Amino acid sequence: MLMNTRPLISDQEADNLVSFLGRRTLMGAGLAAGGLLATPLSAFAAASAPEAEITVDQARTAPIPIILPNFGGGLGAQIAEVLANDLTNTGLFKVLPGGASSGSPDFSSAKSMGARALVTGTVSGSGSVRVEMRLWDVLTQQQIQGTAYTTSSANWRRIAHIVGDVIYERMLGEKGYFDTRIAFIARSGARAHQRTRLAIMDQDGANSRMLTAGNWLTLTPRFNPVKDQVAFMSYANNRPRVYLFDLASGRQQILGEFAGISFAPRFAPDGRSVVLSVTRNGGSDLFVVDLASGSRRQITSSGAIDTSPSYSPDGSQIVFNSDRGGTPQLYIMSASGGGARRISYGHGTYGSPVWSPRGDLIAFTRIANGSFSLGVMNPDGTGERIMTEGFTVESPSFCPNGRVLAYCRQSRAGAGGAGFNSTIGMVDITGFNDRVLPTPGQASDPAWSPLNG
């Protein structure tokens, strides 16, 4: 049963957050909510534009040269900067400056610069702004996409991300992921006594906001795939339990009352239930909690430590970590429980599994010879690949299209915690473009939102 408890953040702070987070809910609701109006723009060319035929593998080898305008300066220049950063950070685009803001493109000049695509567009208005963008294929000299977006000027950064997603999808043939957020744990203070706070930011590190006050140890946030809601673990009142945080209201509540410690939550793909781990008799078992009724159902009873569950995208299976065979390894079973089979057989111990939104891969953390590796494998355990290594690399989380993993990277601490650092990294599932995401301070436990979430 869901119950209220001492707030992790004050009601006043929650109300202040609503004014910031509420705009996200409005825009996320789409055209019907009136937060964002998208209007198609007809092509100057009479012929219909073909789909661009560039694969991600091709772009990884040779990033796509694309010309971006300044959208008329002022707010337009700010939108152009965010858009350029989104595309550049993928490692799949090479942004070239100097495009015309509007009018017919200069294809000859674009070809001489080596561009494969170019964007034209303008930004007009103040309180309510209209952002026009057209994406052109330089080789065919045809418009690939034309859209005008009308919204409040406060949403200018989101418009930049949305335009970036359109460009990404039209050029590469798969959904973009720029209009997303990342929940994470913000860390501050001395290594031995760090203050941890549930926080949220845009996927590029902008608009970071603290959601809890930092009075208690807080860990493992997870986004609801269909609702503005985050599950996380908190040691509030010195009793570790899983909580739900509603991003629309800023309020939180306990997820179920268990005799033992509840931890490692993960939402089902339909967002209606949460699977989590609960300590029992020296081990831990997996339970599913229905969010509407509060009813719970136990799905493992191995007598071992079963934890870190993650659903397959269709909700039919769960991958989890268990030491039932003697050491922590990865297992897959039916979402209803039973029939667990081991899938990890490499050197070392395995943990933190998470299923890709595409369903084709499972990411994991592996510990061997005292060091950490972050990798992926097929759901049957074959095809294991390591993407990055370090003193500590853990907590993988896929972006909505399954192309990129966010993860936590921590350095070794010296005497008194000297030299310790905790950052969020991002890496392509092939191990390409491993980079650090800028955050206001130290950070860990990243959890990627769904698209437009």
Give a written overview of the molecule.
The structure is a single chain. The protein is mostly beta strands and 453 residues long. The chain has helices at residues 11-28, 56-61, 75-89, 107-112, 156-172, and strands at residues 37-40, 64-67, 93-96, 117-125, 128-137, 142-152, 181-188, 195-202, 209-210, 218-223, 229-234, 241-246, 252-254, 262-267, 273-280, 283-290, 296-298, 306-311, 317-322, 329-334, 341-342, 349-355, 362-368, 371-377, 385-390, 392-398, 404-410, 422-428, 435-437, 442-448. The chain has a six-stranded mixed β-sheet with strand order 1-6-5-4-2-3, with helices on one face. Strand 7 (181-188) and strand 8 (195-202) form a beta hairpin. The longest helix is centred in the first third of the chain and has 18 residues, at 11-28. Mean pLDDT is 89; it is low at 1-34 and 45-50.
Layout of helices and strands, plus pairs?
Blueprint: H1 11-28, E1 37-40, H2 56-61, E2 64-67, H3 75-89, E3 93-96, H4 107-112, E4 117-125, E5 128-137, E6 142-152, H5 156-172, E7 181-188, E8 195-202, E9 209-210, E10 218-223, E11 229-234, E12 241-246, E13 252-254, E14 262-267, E15 273-280, E16 283-290, E17 296-298, E18 306-311, E19 317-322, E20 329-334, E21 341-342, E22 349-355, E23 362-368, E24 371-377, E25 385-390, E26 392-398, E27 404-410, E28 422-428, E29 435-437, E30 442-448
Parallel strand pairs: 2-3, 2-4
Antiparallel strand pairs: 1-6, 4-5, 5-6, 7-8, 7-30, 8-9, 10-11, 11-12, 12-13, 14-15, 15-16, 16-17, 18-19, 19-20, 20-21, 22-23, 23-24, 24-25, 26-27, 27-28, 28-29
Helix pairs in contact: 3-5
